[in-house]
Amino acid sequence: IMLLAVGVATFTLGTGMGKKMEEVMKVYGDAVKDVAMILLIVAGAGVLKQVFIDSGVSKEIGVALAGWQMNPLVLGWIIAAVIRVCLGSATVAGLTAAGILAPIVVSSGADPNLMVLSIGAGSLMFSHVNDAGFWLFKEYFNLSIRDTLRSWSIMESIVAVVGLIGVLILDAII
User: Fold this and answer.
1) How many Cα atoms within 13 Å fall on the side-chain side of residue 45?
2) How far apart are CA 75 and CA 105, in angstroms?
3) Alpha carbons 86 and 52: distance in angstroms, whole number
4) How far apart are CA 118 and CA 113, in angstroms?
5) Rounded to whole angstroms, how far apart are CA atoms 62 and 131?
6) Which residue of 17, 26, 155, 156 sits 20 to 30 Å from the alpha carbon of 148, by its own alpha carbon?
7) Which class for 80: exposed (0-12), middle (13-18), buried (19 or more C-beta within 10 A)?
8) Do residues 83 and 128 touch, judged by C-beta distance below 8 A?
């Protein structure tokens, strides 16, 4: 479908409007330059997540953490936050934390809906240079890395902490 959309756009907005194919291809080339690194980062993060799962590391971490005397919602948030800070990808952090915590959720009796929210909040902790969202924000707002760390990364951390607080409030009410 996307290829069809590119084809239609090429002819309706490009050659159909009198532009030469070289001009249209230059626009496509510039667009690819903007997103290529972001796509590579996302792909690499997905590969790393699968390595964790296939190697059994995720399962071993889950077994080791099962004995900890901690609220499983806080544990889920911490695991997702640590993975996020180490790897950079919120998607990888969330999926890996969910895989690690699945047995703990069942055995602890924690509300799975709140665990999803907790892991999701933790996966937002401190976005940095390994995160595709960091680069999108930096590029679209034309910021330096320092300014992006001072704005985007701090904002993401605030969202993560407020998210955990919200989950714990919901856990106390429900």
Assistant:
1) 25
2) 10
3) 13
4) 9
5) 25
6) 26
7) buried
8) no
Residue found by looking up tokens 């690690």 in the block: 100
Q: What per-residue confidence (pLDDT) applies to 166? A: 98
The neighbour count for residue 150, using CB atoms within 10 Å, is 12
Tokens at 26, concatenated = 């230059």
pLDDT tens track, the chain, 174 positions: 888 998 898 888 888 888 888 998 898 888 888 778 778 867 776 777 778 778 988 778 777 777 788 999 999 999 999 999 988 889 888 888 888 888 888 888 899 999 999 999 999 999 999 888 899 899 999 999 999 999 999 999 999 999 999 999 999 998
What is the reported pLDDT for 89? 85
For every residue of 112-156, DSSP letters joined together read: HHHHHHHHHHHTTS---TT-HHHHHHHHHTT--HHHHIIIIIHHH
**CA-wise closest residue to 58 among 67, 49, 68:** 49
Q: In the numeric block, which tokens belong to residue 9?
A: 């756009």
Q: Which residues contact 116 (CB under 8 A, 6 or more apart)?
A: 98
Helix axes 72-87, 90-108, angle to 10 degrees: 160
